[in-house]
Design a protein that fits this description.
The chain has 114 residues and is an alpha+beta fold. The chain contains 3 helices and 6 strands. It has one domain.
Length: 114
C-alpha cells in the first residue's frame, strides 16, 4: 500500500468528493451502508462523504491498492482512506468510477474500524 501522487487521480477524487452534498457522487454498496448505519451512530452516509472530502481537502492520505482479489479484478485499483469519525479510526475502501471521465464518482465498497 502506498499513497498515490498522481495529480490526475487526485483531481478526479477531489471533483467527486467536493460534490458530497449531491446525490450520486458518493455512492455506497449496500453492505457498507448497512455497516455505517449500524455502527456509526449519528453519522449519515452523507456526513461520512463530507468527512472523506475534508480528509482529501487537507491533504490526507489516500492509498492506491492494486486489485488482486478475483471478484474485484474488473477494477485495476481500489483506494483506501483511514479517517477519524468521532473517536474512532475508520477504514473506508472505495472505487473511483469513471463512467463519464469528465464527471467521476466514488463508490464506497467497504467500511469498518481500522
Amino acid at each position: 500500500m502506498a499513497p498515490f501522487a498522481d495529480p490526475a487521480i487526485l483531481a478526479k477524487f477531489r471533483h467527486a468528493l467536493e460534490q458530497w452534498r449531491f446525490t450520486g457522487y458518493v455512492t455506497w454498496k449496500a453492505f457498507a451502508r448497512q455497516w455505517a448505519e449500524r455502527n456509526l451512530e449519528g453519522w449519515t452516509t452523507r456526513a461520512i462523504a463530507e468527512a472523506i472530502f475534508q480528509h482529501v481537502d487537507v491533504g490526507g492520505r489516500i492509498d492506491q491498492v492494486r486489485e488482486t482479489r478475483p471478484e474485484w479484478t474488473d477494477d485495476a485499483y481500489h483506494y483506501d482512506f483511514r479517517i477519524q469519525i468521532g473517536n474512532r479510526l475508520i477504514y473506508i475502501e472505495t472505487l473511483l468510477v469513471e463512467d463519464d471521465p469528465s464527471d467521476p464518482t466514488v463508490h464506497v465498497v467497504s467500511i469498518h474500524d481500522a
